[in-house]
Design goal:
Chains A, B: This is Corrinoid adenosyltransferase. Chains A, B: Keywords: ATP-binding, Cobalamin biosynthesis, Cytoplasm, Nucleotide-binding, Porphyrin biosynthesis, Transferase. Chains A, B: It is found in: Cytoplasm. Chains A, B: Belongs to the Cob(I)alamin adenosyltransferase family. 2 copies of one chain form a homodimer. Chain A is of the alpha/beta class. Chain A has a single domain, classed as Rossmann fold. In chain A, about 45% of the residues lie in helices and about 15% in strands. Chain A has a 6-stranded parallel sheet, sandwiched between helices. In chain A, helix 3 links the parallel strand 2 and strand 3. The longest helix of chain A is centred in the first third of the chain and has 20 residues. The termini of chain A are far apart. Chains A and B meet through helix 1, strand 1, helix 2, helix 3 and helix 4 of A and helix 1, strand 1, helix 2, helix 3 and helix 4 of B.
Chain lengths: ~200, ~200
């Protein structure tokens, strides 16, 4: 790029801006999105939390249900607790399935968490609902996929719903508006023996 | 899974827990990570914002420098403004390079933003520093890559540094501890003409 003159740069950018403006002018619709974050990489839950943060900043009302995390002290819990009018935060998990070692209990927990998600989605005062790690309980077949898809299909038109977790079902991906796969390129806990750290993993 | 008895399930999960505990026991180190979020998908900045949110929740001090976003009213700005003792937030961009149409100005903006990042990284009172969209200005060669890598290599051992933006340089990926590529599976703005929406894109 160094050999381009300032005039050439300005002309090229002007052209780029015009193209960008044309594209943006064609994007006029607003709609509540069904968003899926999946894949083996990190960032599925954190990107969803970042969306919750932005929504709070715009004064919106958000419901967050965590299917795996329970009573532990997370950073998200501490911050969301400062915005009680904007976030209803429900960490409803019992930990991982290998912690409980009890399938009936896991199914009951998944059901209770799902009923919360369902209630929030049905209530049009919520602008955004995050079902964190829902894909995990679907993978274990702790909830009927058809029932979940039916609720998502019937969500209010303006509500954003975010579903996270690895192994998102194909039918959910088909239904979603925005799907991102987080791909693991490098992870320090494996390669360097680094443990879960505050501010990063929780 | 339905045909497995409860006892078999419990036994399998017990085994899984033991394996998990062994792995976790080997992960004892804590260290400030160099984290990179790249790729064409969404979630690079939002996942970084989610980490900032978690760090704030743990009472840590975070510096955030945005290389592209400027004065616009973003959700992150509104929330971070509520935590002045924990987040120093500096949206220092002029917009995209096709908005300014002036390379000298873009280079000056990139330099000013980078000096802020550099100052924050050098100051050990910051637990986390986010250089949002730094990869973009590196791609345009608005900052010398060698200089950036040198500063990152010399960061305090406990400080987490997060760099976002598509097209992360290979040398940065080599140096990083944790690298995630956000892969676009489906995007509504292209396919459905949906515009950027509050709470999602800003």
């Amino acid at each position: 790029m160094a050999e381009r003159t300032e005039e050439q740069h300005a002309a090229k950018m002007k052209k780029k801006q015009a193209a960008h403006d044309r594209i943006m002018a064609a994007r006029t619709a607003e709609k509540g999105l069904l968003i899926v974050h999946t894949g083996k990489g990190k960032g599925k839950t954190t990107a969803a939390l970042g969306m919750v943060l932005r929504a709070i900043g715009h004064g919106k009302k958000v419901g967050v249900v965590q299917f795996v995390k329970g009573a532990m002290d997370t950073g998200e819990k501490a911050v969301f607790g400062r915005f009680p009018e904007h976030v209803e935060f429900r960490p409803m998990g019992d930990g991982f399935t290998w912690d409980t070692q009890n399938r009936a209990q896991d199914i009951a927990s998944a059901r209770a968490a799902w009923e919360e998600v369902r209630r929030m989605i049905a209530d049009p005062t919520y602008d955004m609902v995050l079902a964190d790690e829902l894909n995990i309980v679907l993978r274990y077949e702790y909830l009927p996929l058809d029932e979940v898809l039916e609720v998502l299909r019937a969500k209010p038109a303006d509500t954003h719903v975010i579903v996270t977790g690895r192994n998102a079902p194909a039918a959910l991906i088909d239904m979603a508006d925005l799907v991102t796969e987080m791909t693991l390129v490098k992870h320090p806990s494996r390669e360097q023996g680094i443990k879960a750290q505050a501010g990063i993993e929780f």
